[in-house]
Structure formats: C-alpha cells, structure tokens
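Fold this sequence, please.
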Amino acid sequence: MSTLQKLPIGIQEFEKLRREGCFYADKTKQIYQMVSQGCYYFLSRPRRFGKSLLMSTIHALFNGKKELFDGTIGQRLAIADQPDITWQVHPVLHLDLNTQKYDCIEALENVLNETLTEWEQLYGRNPVEIGFGRRFQGVIKRAYEKTGHRVVILVDEYDKPMLQAIGNDSLQQEFRDTLKGFYGALKSMDGCIKFALLTGVTKFGKVSVFSDLNNLNDISMDAEYWDICGLTEQEIEASFPAEIDVLAKANGMTYDECVETLRHRYDGYHFEENSPGVYNPFSVLNTLNKKKFGSYWFETGTPTYLVTLLQLHHYNLEAMAKTQTSADVLNSIDGHDTNPIPVIFQSGYLTIKSYNSRFGTYLLDFPNKEVEEGFLKFLIPFYTRINAVESAFQIQCFVDDVENGRTEQFINRLKSFFAGTPYELVKDLENHYQNVLFIISRLMGFYTQAEYHTSEGRIDMVIKTQKFCYVMEFKLDGTAEEALEQITDKNYTLPFEMDGQQIIRIGMNFSSQTRNIERYILG
C-alpha cells in the first residue's frame, strides 16, 4: 500500500501548505486563466469551500514565490508551464472580513481602519484623505508609485457584515453604504490596479455594494470556473486511492462501497447547469483524516440568518426543497427581497439539480445527504420547542415506533413536536404544521421510505417500513373524520396496496386554539 498523504486539515495558507508537504488540488490552471484574461472578478462559493486557499494561492503568485509552484517544493503546478508567467512581485492588498462579528457599524469601521492603517504604514498616508474610500484610493495610488508595479487587491468574505445583519434593515443599510464607498476605489483607481478578486458566500445586488462597480466579472456560475473551489470526483479518485482504501477497511466496506458513500454524502454541488458534481472539500478531507464518515462541514456551524429568512417570510420548506427559479434570481440578492432562496442557494444548502434551457429555469434541491440531514435537524429547534440533542433521540424513537406498528406512541411523539408552537409562528399555523411535517418526513426518509404524491392528489404524509405503510391526512380546525374520509375518497392507499405492507390510515385534526393535534382516528 502506498504512503498516506499529509492532509491540510485546518490549513488555508498556500505557502504553509506547500512547505509542509500537504496535499494540494491544483487549481492554478484556472487561476492563470483569470489573471491572463481579465482584471476584476467576483466569486461566490459556500463557506469552507476553499475560497481562502484560492486567495492565498493568488497572493503567493503575485508575491513572485516561484518555488511554491515550479516543483522546487512539492509537485509542479500547471501554472508553472505557462511561458508568459514572469513571477513579477506586485504590491498585494489583502482584506479579510471573515474574522469579526459584525453586530454594529463600529465593528466594520474598526476592521477597515485597522487594515488601512497597516497598508498606510507600508505605503504612506496623506492627511487630507478623509473616509475609507479616499484612504483606500490613496493607498492604491502610492503602492503603485512606490513599487512601479500595479496593485493586486484581494477581498475575502466581502459580504460577512451584511449577512450578519439580515433581519436588521437599518444596520444592513449602514454596512452597505460603508462598503459601497470603500469598494468604489476599485473603479476610480483602475489605472493602478493589476488584478482584483472579491469572494463571498453571497452576491448582494441592485442598490448594493456592487452597483457602481460595473466592471466586476462575476464568475460564480461560469462553466470555465465550476471547479475552481472544491474537489472533483476525478481529483478524489486520482489523489486518494490509499486513503480511500484505509477508510473503507476502517468502516467495513469494499473500496467501491466507500467511494459511493463519499459521493452520496459529500458530492452533488453544481455551480453551473452543465457541470459535473463538486465535492465539499472540508468534509472529504476530514473524513479521510479521521477515517470516519461525519457531518464535518455542517458541524462547523450553520448561520442562523438562513432560519431568520425562512421564518421571517413564512416560507414553505417543501417548496424550498424543489424550487424552480431563474438565473437572475440566483445571481443576486436584494436585502429587501422576500425570497430567501438566493441566499440559501449561494450559501450551499441548495444546489442546481437540472436546467430547462427552453425557459431558462433551474430546479434546486439539497446537494447531498450531509447537507439535507444536517439542515433539517438544525431547523427542528427553530420550529418546535425540542432542542437539537433531544430531537435526534426523538427521530430515533419515531423510526422505532413506526417500524413496530406502535401508532399511539408515534402520534404522541408527533404531538410533542407541536407542543408549544412558537408564538411568532401562530400567524400562519397551516404553513407551520406543513413545515414541521416536512422536516419529520424527510428525516424519517433517511431510515424509512417517505412519499408525498399520488395521481389523485397530495398526501400529507406517507411513511413505509418493511411491515407497515402509514397514510396520513391532516386538517386544520376541521375534523379527524374529514381527514380520514379524504384518504378514502381520493384512493390515497391505492398505490401501496400491492406492496405487501399492512396499511394504517390515520386522519388527524389540528386545533388553532391549542396549536396541536386535537384528535385522530384510525381507519
């Protein structure tokens, strides 16, 4: 067996990664294409997808660190074979907005002031320059004049302040105004700039920080750059045969079973309609390192702004999971928009599953099991009074009850999910009930078989196990009898009658007064 590689766990700095002999997926062919064909770029990718490493690689390139690319240290990278690469040293201005909590305007102003002060110590300051935009202009101009070479500007996680202010319109507007003035320097100092790249999770558009920066090339959904971050299946299979073999043995799998499990859990991101899937690099590398499958990306923290958006607009979760939308919607976020889908898509919790070229529409869904299961479990405490630790146990008990035909226990557990419905969700009880049922159904579907539709209509919930098939219909402020009658009248059980399981029909009624299941009957 070949020697296992040193994996770059927790390392986002290109030079450190290379000097310590860690694995590096060579993205320098795409980097060369960027720097040789354009000047101003924007790239959106989910968190922990390799954006910071990409920035660090570009930083090293424009610092002229040839030895990190040409095979002197580690494998020779693709960009070293380009005849017109000069390894010229350029002044690099690198701003990282990812390290701060932005709960007030002063937090952003402090980061910008500290960064500008650091740059001004290198290139000087003119005291007549007042304001972040003017100071930034001055730094760019003097860096160019002092070195004789045009400036490279890298901004990591440009959108962090605005994302943390979702739900606080006044603070978000303050962040937008401040950053708009700051980034305006890129356009006014065009003659002094060699290259600029801004990255983030999302792209805020319309009256946003980019509204005056009309020369910015958004490559987030370009076919040429679909794999500039993340890992492809080809990269994984070519780079990690030994690591996959060890992982397979540690988990009692064959090599092929292990590859399929990696694909099922971590593949499935599509950043362009015709591209192959991209694997989440953070989860893949941690899985290979720990020799254990886990929800590593999800466990690093899901931003609460996603749930804030969903609840603020009373969004239907089932509609979210099978959304059809256009490129115009996906490409830009308006802070005042009521549609949470662009933020959820750009944050990596939904991805492109198919594309209708005739109408220019995309079908979105969860990219893989890690994201779907993790996101649904994350939602439970926000839609019920059950905490995250207890919810995992409750789902396990749900599965055990339905597999053994314990209908009364199953329904009592269902009641516990609705007990104490948050007051802020009372205004749209029917949507809230549908969302809780959707979460439970999808989570149950990881361990049982869940279905939703028939030719006669939409069934509220169907759960199938080896022995039983539960067909459930719910009413709000109606009667359990009406719910059960609908199952019969619309032949909801017909598609399942030849499957061999015992069919259990359940009609339930929710009460808007008690905000819970008022009564149920079996048929």
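The chain has a mean pLDDT of 88. The CA atoms of residues 40 and 196 lie 5 Å apart.
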